[in-house]
Specification:
Blueprint: E1 15-18, H1 19-38, E2 48-51, E3 57-60, H2 63-69, H3 75-90, H4 95-114, H5 119-140, E4 142-143, H6 149-160, H7 169-183, E5 185-186, E6 191-192, E7 198-204, E8 212-214, E9 217-219, E10 231-240, H8 260-283, E11 288-291, H9 297-305, E12 309-311, H10 316-326, E13 330-331, E14 343-353, E15 356-362, E16 370-376, H11 379-402, E17 404-407, H12 411-424, H13 429-441, H14 444-452, H15 457-469, E18 475-477, E19 484-486, E20 493-495, H16 496-514, E21 518-521, H17 538-541
Parallel strand pairs: 7-16, 10-11, 10-13, 11-12
Antiparallel strand pairs: 1-21, 2-3, 4-17, 5-6, 8-16, 9-15, 10-14, 14-15, 17-20, 18-19
Helix pairs in contact: 1-3, 1-4, 2-3, 3-4, 3-16, 4-13, 4-16, 5-12, 5-13, 5-16, 6-7, 6-11, 7-11, 8-9, 12-13, 12-15, 14-15
The chain binds adenosine-5'-diphosphate and magnesium ion.
Adenosine-5'-diphosphate is lined by residues 40-43, 45, 63, 93-97, 158, 161-162, 408-410, 445, 449, 477, 479, 492, 494.
Length: 553
């Protein structure tokens, strides 16, 4: 055959790696991401300080927060960040766990690739192992219901462990439980919790212990006018999403005024219109008004004279929460507003929180939306406490919605590892090696918990494995003493979903990364608009063009 000139089909500046070197690079990048968050895992995990390009500083222990704030460029590293985001969206906790497992699965895969085991065989073995892991998880899990207050407390405080909230965990756990119980929807067959129904406001300048649950909504706005009451008991609340103004931005009207009388008449007419708008609201018996749009100065004055506490430009999300908390209907047309549209609250008041005046809508009867006000000494502290409380709420919801929990501290991972290892014995050849690799990879969780606690992982891992062999399924790492403990009895309890979701997304991303044998990245400067396309559809079609003259690394 004649020598064929290489055909160049990719633009200049394109970077391409393929085959083993592509796999190696991808695994390396993914592992680098996993290693970054690894040291934050568990109650003795360290924090990370992140500084963005504006100089803003975040100090956090939260996996997904770290990964979201880091600027990551490598395409496979970005896929690992996606794992954390999925975990966050599906459960809200367990992000570090998911990422660390994904990193370890890839590390083990690399060893198998070195033994000439094809990545598709590894992926197949991983899929089998994951299926087994899911079975084991569902067998070992325990039931939980709303009535199990003690278990709920443990779930909430486990979620907050190591997140700067440790000293005040009991109080914050109680607040989180009360909030979830309050907004939970129960039907005969299922429970559901919508996290939007729990608003979390944060303000620095007080102690964490001053944090509180408000049976209603805290609106970050003050009352409009000095003449309005500061406190309204037995509030009857109107919610409107239409302005109390006379402004028509769509039509540009020009009025020609020739005589002073006409001006006066015009102004009087405007005043009368505003007065009648306020009258319509007042006639319903409302003494509190929340408006999503503007309220004219003149209307404010009329509202004050009627003794109505009014707030304007309230966020749409707050208006909706107010509606769920007070049972008020959001009205769009003032001509139709009536007493039936009003909601109620025991107390509406303006109070200074930190430097700002805020409006508290308190003591609603059976509100379907509530607020947690998180306090703490500084902004960094309240930010981290807020994340801890969010994790507690997510974990409580996941536990109650599924009705299933497991103990933590590495116990379920040890149990999975043991079961998968046993399962591997029933398989043959290369697949068996992949399944065994999975079983070892999953031990990374107890091992890392021990390492982060400053302990030598070898001894404790041996002890833990032998306890699991004896049927002590909740035996886990006591990071404070360096000894094994019964994690269930010690109250380290997590929703089952953290674990099922973590292993499913970690396995999925590891397999996806393993199957990639070609990375074609367009040069940033020549094709800036094609962000994210290197992993895209073009890849497979280019299989036949090896030797196209692109550098290998
Ligand atoms: P993630 O982002 O994965 O939730 P965390 O830093 O919250 O990471 O750590 C979660 C891990 O720490 C879980 O494996 C959990 O079981 C474990 N853990 C939580 N509290 C304790 C405790 N008191 N003792 C030992 N392990 C704990
Ligand atoms: Mg956590």
């Amino acid at each position: 055959m004649a020598q064929v000139q290489p055909v160049i089909i990719l633009p200049e500046g394109t970077k391409r790696t393929h085959g083993r070197s592509a796999q190696r690079n991808n695994i390396l990048a993914a592992r680098a991401v996993a290693d970054t968050v690894r040291t934050t895992l568990g109650p003795k995990g360290m924090d990370k300080m992140l500084v963005d390009n504006m100089g803003e500083v975040i100090v956090t222990n939260d996996g997904v927060t770290i990964l979201k704030e880091m600027t990551i460029e490598h395409p496979t590293a970005k896929m690992i960040v996606e794992v954390a985001k999925t975990q966050e969206a599906e459960v809200g906790d367990g992000t570090t766990t998911a990422v660390v497992i994904a990193g370890e699965l890839l590390k083990k895969a690399e060893e198998l690739i070195d033994l000439e085991i094809h990545p598709t065989v590894i992926a197949k073995g991983y899929a089998l192992a994951e299926q087994k892991a899911q079975e084991i998880l569902s067998t070992i899990s325990e039931k939980v219901t709303e009535a199990d207050t003690e278990i709920l407390k443990k779930i909430a405080s486990t979620a907050m462990t190591g997140k700067g909230a440790d000293q005040d965990k009991t109080k914050l756990a109680e607040i989180a439980i009360a909030a979830v119980r309050q907004v939970m929807e129960r039907s005969s067959s299922a429970v559901s919790v919508s996290k939007e129904d729990i608003k979390i406001e944060k303000r620095a300048g007080a102690s964490i212990d001053d944090s509180e649950l408000i049976k209603g909504i805290l609106v970050d706005k003050e009352r409009l006018h000095e003449g309005m009451p500061k406190t309204v008991k037995n509030a009857r609340i109107a919610l409107i999403d239409t302005p109390v103004e006379i402004k028509n931005t769509e039509i540009d009207a020009k009025i020609q005024i020739d005589e002073p009388d006409q001006l006066q008449a015009f102004l009087t007419q405007e005043e009368n219109m505003l007065r009648s708008m306020v009258d319509k609201i007042a006639k319903t018996g409302a003494n509190v008004l929340f408006c999503q749009k503007g309220i004219d100065d003149m209307a404010q004055h009329f509202l004050a004279k009627k003794g109505i506490y009014a707030v304007r430009r309230v966020a749409k999300s707050d208006l909706e929460r107010l509606s769920r908390a007070t049972q008020a209907k959001i009205v769009s047309n003032l001509d139709e507003i009536s007493a039936e549209d009003l909601g109620s609250a025991g107390l509406v008041e303006e109070q200074k929180v930190g430097d700002d005046n805020m409006t508290y809508v308190r003591d609603c009867s059976n509100p379907k939306s509530v607020t947690i006000l998180v306090r703490g000494g500084t902004n960094h502290i309240v930010d981290e406490i807020k994340r801890a409380v969010e994790d507690a709420i997510c974990d409580l919801s996941a536990a109650l919605v599924d009705g299933k929990v497991v103990a933590g501290a590495g116990a379920p991972e040890l149990e999975m590892s043991r079961g998968i290892k046993k399962y591997a014995e029933s398989l043959a050849g290369r697949e068996q090696l992949a399944v065994l690799a999975y079983s070892e990879a999953i031990e990374v969780i107890p091992r890392t918990l021990a390492e982060n606690g400053g302990l030598d992982p070898i001894d404790i891992m041996t002890e833990l494995k032998s306890q699991h062999e004896k049927g002590m399924k909740w035996s886990g790492v006591n990071v404070f003493t360096g000894r094994p403990m019964d994690a269930w009895k010690q109250g380290v309890i997590e929703p089952l979903r953290i674990k099922t979701q973590a292993i499913s997304s970690a396995t999925e991303v590891a397999s996806m990364i393993l199957r990639i044998d070609d990375v074609i990245a367009s040069g940033q400067k020549t094709a800036p608009e094609k962000e994210g396309s290197p992993m895209g559809a073009g890849m497979h079609g280019m299989g036949g063009m090896s030797g196209g003259g692109m550098p290998e690394y």
